[in-house]
Amino acid sequence: MFRHVVVKGRRCTSQTKLHGKTVIVTGSNTGIGKTTAIDLAKRGARVILACRSKQRGEAALEEVKKESGSNQVVFMPLDLGSLKSVRSFAETFLKSEPRLDILINNAGIFLQGRTEDGLGMMFGVNHIGHFLLTNLLLDRLKECEPSRVVILSSMAQHFGKIDFDCLNTHKALGLGTSVMDVFQIYSDSKLCNVLFTHELAKRLQGTKVTCYCLHPGAINTELARNTASIMQILLKPVTAFFFKDTVQGAQTTLHCAVEEGIEPLNGRYFSNCTVREVYAKAKDDAAAKKLWELSERLSGLA
């Protein structure tokens, strides 16, 4: 009984149909991303599965088509750990697809290391890759407004901090490799997601493009598939007891993507299909602007 109480969350109740709309979901070959893609395809959207692995992406493509009953599903390769790949994806998408109505920045990684561009892995994949992708696609979102950007963060952002000295010196949020260090850096990257949403909303004022970030709930999926085996062993009893499944985990993403009338909540943070307050550090105007300007430099936009 207690387990049921812990994992049961609110559901997205919107009946919105998306015929004629195009949606990108990053990291949609597995977990909540794939579940989100299936739901949006069922609603009639043309869904772009933006995934790193060609083999896993093509397998997910067949599954999403089968589960949704839609053939308006496309796989396009995207490696968020490569700025070159992000630019190539955006270029291909903009040439081949006339619309973009909803961008869902779903992909995330829990792994220490370096990207091919020399960025800290979690900073590069969880923040910079999505920052660049969003900026490269913003004009198309504006052309198709009203449109939305949905950014998956995590309640881990509450524990996050942004060490700008470390970012400027090492292009990483932290350098430690212990279990606690890796969790801290992951939390920092999730705080970046919230600050990015905060600043993006300010820059979108005067348009009909809105953005939202969210905590999907603790999801028993493949986010930590690249985590050290000792961490997986430690997490196993916790995931079995507390974590939501992917259908439950996708509900807040879907709420932010399709719920009618949430435009006045532009830039806000959601959990369990409800807008939530965040700590002052997650809506710090100066920090959000500083992170944006640093991200422009590191992604080659500035």
Write the layout of secondary structure elements.
Layout: H1 2-7, E1 22-26, H2 31-42, E2 46-51, H3 54-68, E3 73-77, H4 83-96, E4 102-105, H5 121-143, E5 147-152, H6 164-170, H7 179-203, E6 209-215, H8 229-242, H9 246-249, H10 251-258, E7 269-271, E8 274-276, H11 285-299
Parallel strand pairs: 1-2, 1-4, 2-3, 4-5, 5-6, 6-7
Antiparallel strand pairs: 7-8
Helix pairs in contact: 2-3, 4-5, 5-7, 5-11, 7-11
The gist of it:
Helix content is 47%, strand content 13%. With 302 residues, it is an alpha/beta fold.
Judged by helices, strands and strand pairing, the structural class is alpha/beta
Mean pLDDT: 91
Return Rg in Å. 18 Å
Largest sheet: 8 strands, mixed
The rough form would be described as globular
What is the count of β-strands? 8
N-to-C span: 54 Å
The share of residues in extended strands comes to 5-15%
Structure annotation, total helices = 11
Low-confidence stretches: 1-7, 238-242
Give the spatial strand order of the biggest sheet: 3-2-1-4-5-6-7-8
Helix content: 40-55%
Q: Summarize the helix and strand pattern as letters.
A: HEHEHEHEHEHHEHHHEEH
Task: Describe the protein in words.
An eight-stranded mixed sheet has the order 3-2-1-4-5-6-7-8, with helices on both faces. The chain is of the alpha/beta class. The N and C termini lie far apart (54 Å). The chain has helices at residues 2-7, 31-42, 54-68, 83-96, 121-143, 164-170, 179-203, 229-242, 246-249, 251-258, 285-299, and strands at 22-26, 46-51, 73-77, 102-105, 147-152, 209-215, 269-271, 274-276. Helix 4 (83-96) packs parallel to helix 5, helix 5 crosses helix 11 and helix 7 (179-203) packs across helix 11. Helices cover 47% and strands 13% of the residues.
